[in-house]
Structure formats: C-alpha cells, structure tokens
Specification:
The protein contains 13 helices and 5 strands. The chain is mostly helical and 382 residues long. Among the domains are: 56 residues, no CATH class; 78 residues, no CATH class; 52 residues; 50 residues. The chain has a 3-stranded parallel sheet, with helices on one face. Strand 1 and strand 2 form a beta hairpin. The longest helix has 40 residues.
C-alpha cells in the first residue's frame, strides 16, 4: 500500500536512480534491484516491472486507520451472522485457506444453531460461536436518547444521507471512516443477496405452479390415452378382417379365371414348421458331445503318459530298481476330510451350474423350453 505522497512512477530494469542508489533484494526466484528509498521487497518490485498496475491510491487516512486498529488490537465481532447453504458448500472447499481469515474474528454471533454447526465444521472453536438469534427482530427496542439523536443529526454524515430511498440505503457524502464504508458495502451485498433470493423464490413458485397444473391434467391425459388405445385396437381388428376378406376375394378371382368354379375356403392357416430343415441341431449336439468326450479321454491319456509322479509300489521299484521293504500308509487328518468335503461341495455346485447353463443354452440357442415341453407331450400323446 502507498500513500498519495509517494512516487508511483515505475522504474525500468537497470535504470539509474539518484546517483545509483539501489539495494539488492532476493527471494525464491532470484535477486532483483530495488530503489533504496522504497520500503517494498523483491516480489513487489518484480510485480512493478512485469505487470501493468494502476495508479489508484489508498487514502492515507484509511492506511492510518488500519494501522491503529492493528496496533491496539481492536476485537472483531460478527453480529447477526448467517451462513447460507450455497456459501457453506463453497467455504467448505476452501477450508484450508479460511483458517487465518476466521482466526482474526474474536467472536461470532449467529442467528440459528445450524449456522453455529456450519462454523464449527469450518474450524472455528466452539467457545467463539454463540447463537444470539435474529437481533434485528428478536432483540428488545433500545431506550431512546434524545441528546444523542440530536448530536447525530448535526453530524455531516447524517446531513448528507443519501437520496436513494428505494433500497433504503443512506451513504454519507465524503465519508472516510473505514468501518462505515465496510458496513455500507456489507449492507449493499446483503441487499443484493436478498433480491437474488426473492427472484429465485418467485421462479421456484412459478415452477411449482406449472408442475401442479401438469399434475392436474394427468387424469385427462390418461383418459385420452386409453380412448386412443381402444380406437387403435378396434382399427387393427377391422384391418385384419378386411385383409382376410381381400385375400379370399383374390383367391376366388384366381379360381374363376382358371375356370375352377368350385368354392375354395381356407379352413386352417398354415403353421410354421417346428423343426428346422437345416442345420440339424440334434446331430450337431451329439457330434459335439462325442467329440468332447473323445478329446477329454485323449487329454487324460496324454497327461497320464507324460506324468512322472510316483504313486505306488510299482512306480517306486521302476524308479529306483530296488525292492520295497515297507510302505507307510497315508494318514488322513481332519484337514484332509474338510478339504474332501469342500471338493464335494464344489463339484455339486459346479454340476448344478453346468445343468443350469445347459438348460439356458438349450432355451436360448436351440428351442424354448415351453415349445420342447408341448412337443414332448404331443409326442407321447398326453
């Protein structure tokens, strides 16, 4: 921050100043030359050299006020505080960076317990948060003091109170009190937020009314849909009847043209064949089953021929060429019994899964099970 009396002219890198009065400052990037009569460091000097910075200056009175508040450690209080759900979602994502900011506030006075829980979730200690309610509506009206009111009425700020009565804000002309300007800015922000919330409420009400209107029209739409469905079914029946009569007329016309006057009536419509001509699926399944069995036997024989595991007396004698004096039988433990039971369970489960897979394959790849059932009943005369 610079006062109005400071020289704001930016110096070009490498320029001479007051007889080469420079000092060298350094940071993590490197060294940089800073004018000897300036109090800023390397980062500020580098910003002045590389960025276009405006010439708007902070008034010296505001700088002095901030310095006095920082020096005397004036406590900072938040009164009638409120944390909206949208602001809480954003602040929760920035929680690691809000710690130093919230630590400068000595006390929070919030409106509801929900606001207190939100601040606690953001890292504020419980002893610094108090639920005070809405002080604007719930606090008692203070006692009027005519002398103080008369003194305030004579102040320049009260005499120059704003003319914008539509939003109820009165900004004093030429006010230079930092606290007053901050409160005025906060009031403007709160007013804008309230207007935005009111507009959103009106939009939601309009949407709710639209949805209610659509819900009220649902029974009528359903009745129209049912009526259209019945009309469609009736039209389809009429179309089938007319189509059948047309086919009969065409057949009669063809017979008359061939001088076959006998009457031709279609007694029963043709049915699609139940068994396909090609491919012969039962033959393919039988051949596949036989091929799989032969392949399994061949694999087992090949594994047995190439297996060098010693499994008995004969294998021991063939391997070592010496007679066997004694054989220690295998000792079956409880672990072996449990493993055998698990293998039995796995085998039963695998068999059941294979059966279900076979049934599903027959149903989806060969023929539906209900068709097979009726074919079997017709074959056995049931």
């Amino acid at each position: 921050m610079k006062s109005e009396t400071q020289d704001t002219q930016m110096q070009e890198p490498g320029a001479q100043r007051n007889g080469d009065r420079w000092r060298v400052e350094s940071d993590s990037i490197g060294e940089v030359r800073v004018p000897a009569d300036r109090l800023w460091g390397a980062q500020t000097q580098r910003s002045l050299e590389h960025f276009s910075i405006g010439h708007d200056l902070i008034p010296p009175e505001m700088i002095t006020a901030y310095a006095i508040l920082k020096t005397i450690k004036v406590p900072v209080l938040v009164v009638n505080g409120r944390v909206s759900d949208r602001s809480f979602r954003r602040m929760r994502r920035l929680r690691p960076f809000l710690g130093p900011l919230l630590a400068n506030v000595d006390r929070f006075g919030v409106q509801t317990p929900e606001d207190r829980e939100k601040l606690l979730h953001l890292g504020v200690p419980p002893e610094r948060v108090t639920v005070t309610g809405n002080l604007k509506y719930e606090s008692p009206e203070p006692e009027r003091k005519p002398a103080l009111e008369a003194e305030l009425a004579r102040t320049p700020q009260a005499a120059a109170a704003g003319a914008d009565a539509s939003d109820g804000q009165a900004v004093a002309a030429g006010a230079d009190n930092p606290a007053y300007l901050q409160v005025a800015t906060q009031l403007d922000a709160i007013g804008n937020e309230l207007r935005a919330e009111d507009a959103q409420e009106q939009r939601l009400k309009a949407q709710a009314a639209d949805y209610q209107r659509k819900l009220s029209l649902s029974p009528e739409v359903e009745r129209e849909y049912r009526s259209l469905t019945r009309e469609s079914e009736s039209a389809q029946l009429k179309y089938r009847d007319i189509r059948a009569k047309q086919m009969e007329a065409q057949v009669a016309q063809n017979l008359e043209s061939d001088r076959k006057g006998e009457r031709f009536t279609l007694i029963e419509p043709p049915l699609p064949p139940e068994d396909p001509v090609s491919p012969n699926r039962p033959l393919i399944m039988i051949v596949g089953l036989l091929a799989s069995i032969a392949l399994a036997i061949g694999i087992v024989a090949a594994l047995e021929a190439t297996d060098a595991t010693v499994r008995g007396r004969k294998d021991m004698m063939d391997a070592f060429g010496v007679p066997i004096l004694a054989i220690v039988p295998r000792i079956i433990t409880a672990t072996d019994i449990a493993a055998a039971r698990r293998r039995v369970k796995y085998a039963v489960t695998a068999s059941a899964a294979a059966c279900l897979a076979t049934i599903a394959a027959v149903h989806f790849l060969y023929r539906p099970l209900d068709v097979l059932w009726f074919a079997a009943m017709r074959h056995f005369g049931i």
